UniProtKB/TrEMBL annotation:
Domain DUF362 as annotated: residue spans: 75-228
UniProt xrefs under Pfam families: DUF362 (PF04015)
Family matches, as Gene3D superfamilies: 3.40.50.11440
Highest classification ranks of the organism: Archaea, Methanobacteriati, Methanobacteriota, Stenosarchaea group, Halobacteria
Protein name: DUF362 domain-containing protein
Source species, domain of life: Archaea
Length: 433
């Protein structure tokens, strides 16, 4: 597809004076776990490992998110299980991610530093599933699918972060229960889950499927991680299988208190350098940008961001730009990074079609910002509220327009490092200090 070039769009919208910017540091108080790997071992020791025979195979489910230190945590987990006399294997627990192919899911894990060479155990990446049950959730009969490789093991353990979900709010959101029901359901399970969740609600669907899985699978439990504002490990806790639904809500509440957010709820334009699946399941954390864009789930009340400009994709997302549809404008460079097969596999499985839509495509930063600032209406460089971030995870430092910097100047958690001017080099934005 051909998109309009600078000449075509430049004649439609006159150049505007860009606002002055400041580089700021944002450092809310937060806690970091000092010895996470030691905690992994001590927590795993609380699970019912004595109930398993020596040499038992334990399938360790690992997902596709950019969890801090997930490679070290996964390595420590399989090492501990091996030392206890068990035979661990790794099973990708990521639903349809990686283009819903074994090769793609291995590729995702490799990007996270999780390989057979690193862990010293096999990675069983087959997409094969078995239907282990069919249950009624609300008014819908829902098949329950589970990874065939995990079912062949003597026990199943999942490692996942507990955090706010990108599509909904509830007492259980993104965590170990969802990894069991969606991640280890592979593509078929993920699709069945989302189809039911969109009509009957996410929490009832997660709870119903978790109960069904526990009845049919030798489930050891989970290793739950909670991250702090800086996306570092703040808490690690092993949860026995029987306590998953009862324990996750408290960890979710902690995750909400610790999560990375912007220091203001009112922004005219948010510029995001990169989006990707390791940043968020939606490419950009919907709790940071204030947009879910899914059926039967209203957007969060805050933050309120009028326009979003997404500039590109991370290298680790391997072309999966699912979430680009949450932006109001993007640029040609981002579109050239897209692997449409991966985007569609993700969006069609989840039913969140809006996240795969393509917003207006500008040839470069200069034209994109012209379009965005003009679309705000009544643009004034002295009063416009712009935040320019690397991604929705790394919020410890970013650029803000002068008006926003002045407004936030009295916040003790925010420090202006230096003033900056936005310049363009052959259409690409560059900050000069």
């Amino acid at each position: 597809m051909e998109f309009p070039d600078r000449h075509d769009l430049g004649e439609l919208i006159e150049p505007q004076e860009t606002p002055a910017f400041a580089r700021v540091r944002y450092e809310p108080e937060t806690d970091t776990l000092e010895k996470p790997l030691e905690t992994v071992r001590s927590e795993l020791a609380t699970l019912a490992l004595d109930d398993l025979e020596s040499g038992a195979t334990i399938a360790v489910g690992v997902g596709s998110r950019g969890i801090h230190g997930i490679d070290d945590i996964a390595t420590e987990t399989v090492s501990y299980l091996d030392e206890q006399g068990f035979d661990p294997i790794v099973v990708p627990a990521m639903g349809s991610h990686g283009g819903a192919t074994p090769e793609g899911q291995r590729e995702v894990l490799e990007a996270l530093g999780i390989t057979e060479e690193r862990l010293g155990v096999p990675i069983e990446a087959t997409m094969s599933v078995e239907q282990i049950d069919e249950i009624e959730i609300g008014n819908v009969m829902t098949p329950v699918y589970f990874s065939a490789a995990a079912l062949e093991a003597d026990a199943v353990l999942v490692i996942n972060r507990v955090k706010p979900h990108t599509n909904f709010t509830g007492r259980i959101e993104s965590g170990c229960c969802k990894m069991l029901t969606v991640g280890l359901g592979k593509q078929r399970g993920a699709q069945a889950f989302h189809s039911t969740a969109l009509s009957e609600g996410y929490v009832p669907t997660i709870v119903g499927l978790t109960n069904a899985i526990r009845e049919s699978v030798s489930l050891l439990g989970s290793l739950a991680l909670v991250e702090n504002f800086h996306e570092e490990t703040g808490h690690i806790e092993a949860i026995p299988a029987a306590e998953l639904e009862s324990r996750e809500p408290a960890l979710l509440e902690r995750a909400y208190d610790e999560m990375a957010t912007l220091p203001t709820d009112e922004i005219d334009l948010l510029v995001v350098d990169e989006l990707g699946k390791e940043i968020s399941g939606a490419g950009m954390d919907t709790n940071v940008i204030g947009r879910y864009r899914v059926i039967n789930a209203p957007d969060p009340e805050s933050p309120s961001i009028d326009l979003i400009y997404a500039r590109g994709l991370t290298a680790k997302t391997k072309g999966n730009g699912n979430g680009i549809g949450l932006a109001d404008i993007t640029r040609k460079q981002a579109v050239e990074q897209l692997d449409i097969q991966k985007v569609y596999a993700n969006a069609l499985t989840s039913g969140s079609l809006a996240k795969a839509k393509l917003p207006p495509v500008a040839p470069d930063d200069e034209i994109a910002l012209r379009v965005a600032l003009n679309a705000l209406g009544g643009y004034d460089p002295d009063t416009v509220r712009v935040a320019w971030i690397e991604n929705t995870t790394d919020l410890g430092g970013f650029y803000v327009s002068k008006a926003l910097a002045d407004e936030l100047a009295d916040r003790g958690e925010l420090t202006v490092i230096e003033r900056a001017a936005l310049q363009f080099e052959e259409g690409t934005a560059v900050f000069e200090v």
